[in-house]
Design goal:
It is built from 9 helices and 9 strands. By secondary structure, the chain is α/β, with parallel strands linked by helices. The relative contact order is 0.15.
Length: about 270
């Protein structure tokens, strides 16, 4: 069953010096054609589809368009071109530490974030102790939220958001929060969600993490799709790209798979 279909999606921004001037000056410059403006394609012609229980890793250098694409899939922004079709409930972890009130306590913020995610008060009542224990914030429950470190804030946000079983789960560098122990715990929770049938999309700069968790990979470079398909062959080619800086031409995943297994055979023959 297909839960997500992304077809020829492009996202365009208009950039220029008009962004730093007032409305009056902008109108004057527009009338006299003396301002600078151009289109910037953050994402260009990206297409892929995911089935139930798929976990997609999106890889690419900084500025590749990974986070912008996630915002479009989660409904935060509308694509300039193309279509995105989703089936079921979408939960996105895009900026975990945002959306809290620094003047409220940790406990009050737990209920606030839960309400924003559509959880009932009874659910938070029932799960509150588990949330705080999972985030490791038992002694901070009655302290102002602003006293928490960024890692603590992200741990709390993750603990709240991962309460429910979504149809599509979107993670932007979420599994890099906290120390090694919490990262291992969050990875375990993600595997539980995946095994329960959620389609998951993960953006991560950790290639071992993508290999460990994801069965499919989307490789972006400067907004363009380099490859989409099974994790192992694409991660192997991306690892070579990180070493030599040579970007392959966009290819169907079968070519990456053939390349991957030919390299394995070559290594076995040495």
């Amino acid at each position: 069953m297909t839960t997500l279909n992304v077809e020829n999606v492009s996202i365009c921004y208009r950039i220029g010096d008009f962004q730093s001037i007032g409305l009056k000056e902008y109108l004057m410059r527009k009338l006299t054609h003396t301002y600078f403006s151009k289109k910037f394609w953050a994402v260009k012609d990206v297409s892929f589809s995911l089935d139930k229980s798929d976990m997609l890793g999106i890889i690419g250098s900084n500025g590749a368009g990974k986070s912008t694409l996630l915002k479009a899939i989660s409904g935060v922004m509308t694509p300039s071109n193309g279509t995105i079709q989703t089936q079921g409930k979408v939960v996105a972890f895009l900026e975990l530490a945002s959306g809290f009130d620094g003047d409220l306590t940790v406990k009050e913020n737990t209920y606030l974030r839960g309400a924003l995610l559509g959880y009932s008060r009874s659910l938070i009542d029932e799960q509150y102790d588990n949330i705080i224990a999972y985030a490791g914030l038992g002694e901070f429950a009655d302290r102002p939220f602003r006293q928490l470190s960024s890692g603590m804030k992200s741990r709390l946000a993750f603990a709240i958001a991962s309460l429910v079983q979504p149809d599509i789960l979107i993670l932007d560098e979420v599994l890099s929060v906290g120390d090694g122990a919490f990262q291992a715990k969050s990875e375990k929770r993600m595997k539980e969600i995946i095994n329960a049938g959620s389609t998951t999309i993960l953006v991560s700069h950790s290639l071992p993490q993508v290999r460990n968790l994801c069965n499919k990979v989307l490789w972006l470079d400067h907004g363009k799709q380099v490859a989409f398909g099974p994790s192992a062959p694409i991660c192997a080619r991306y690892e070579e790209f990180l070493r030599d800086g040579k970007l392959p031409e966009p290819l169907p995943w079968t070519d990456f798979e053939s390349y991957y297994y030919s390299r394995l055979d070559a290594d076995d023959g040495e």
